[in-house]
Write a structure and sequence with these properties.
Number of helices: 17
Helix content: over 70%
Largest sheet: none
Low-confidence stretches: 1-40
Radius of gyration: 21 Å
Distance between the termini: 15 Å
Mean pLDDT: 81
Length: about 425
Amino acid sequence: MPRDILEERHPRAFKGRPVTGRADNQTQEVSNEMSDPVVNRGFFGKMMGSSFYKKFILPGLISQSVVIAGGYGTGRELVEYFGNFGSLGGILGMVLVTTVLWAIVYAVSFEFARTFKVYDYRSFFKELIGPGWMVYEVCYIILLLIILGVVGATSGSVFKQAFGLPPLVGAGLFLAGVATLTFFGSYVIEVALSWWSFVLYAVFLIFLFVGLSKVGGQISANLASGDIREGWALGGFKYAFYNLATLSAVLFALRSIETRKEAFISGAMASILTILPGFFLYLVLMGFYPGILEVELPTYTILAQIAPWLLPIFLVVLFGTMIETAVGFIHAVNERVNSWMVDHRNTELTKANRGFLGGAMGLIGLGVASFGLIGLIAKGYGTISWGFFLLHGVALFTIGLYKMSKKGGKAPA
């Protein structure tokens, strides 16, 4: 990152240091990162320190991590936005609408962040829509509370159904996990979200294999029926745009992207990595269609029927994804607060404050859970989609493209 941008964001860190070139600054950033004792541990360290991994894999894994719990984890969102429009209609909405929109918008968003060096949502949307960024923040905070309510409700429900424990136990562990990860900040969050994603992919692949072996014939029959219901495109559109708020959680991990080509490839990869677990799960859901449409926790119900031995493992993974999702969205708020503090108070958010804010937001979100899981998803998410469509999608492809074209050759392509 150029020194002038870094100095503007973190003036105290550069006080008294000699001015060096852009390459020198990048080398220093990499050197500082690789000096972390965790980074230097064998294969783990090599992967986390890999330029390819940080540019093309990490943003997608973080995106998938913050989408996963409320949607793919319980299966409820997949039913609401895809399954309700027919077995084949859901596939069309997921592949032709959601995946394509994510790829395009992520690619251009990553390039906008790279061009203007904006790696938190406050800076990103101030650059994109000026004072209108505050309207985006209102939408983001509302969505944050809804999502925290969803994962909070699910955590309590999972612990009660799986282990016979009071919902407060799940809620307490959820809050503890959120506060701990937000306390340690960006690098630990990158590591946690990355590696838990690999665990999740493994479990979802096993789930898919078991599903195909148990109800593969029914899956094929339901898909072959060609059931396509009106509204499949709109369902995929809404799902794509309310989930684009995940960009705010991914921004902090985009600093390694250096060229326009890298931004576009990373955006496309993020879309694919984010949708794949949902696609795996949707296929299994179709083995129980249409009865599964009325189930509050579809994934839990299916596993209890076809693979009870996998259920405890899945529940552990699911609980981890709830923490991942909450941490991703809350960390974006912490980065936004940190950006304001650097600009206005010449200081940064402390670890203690990060952890406190994370725990407090998690606690507030748990209160939202009392409105009910299905109601939260069906009513809250659909409405907020339009705000993100206007403030992110429309603004990016009008104002954003114009601003990037004006900047022209000032940033490497």
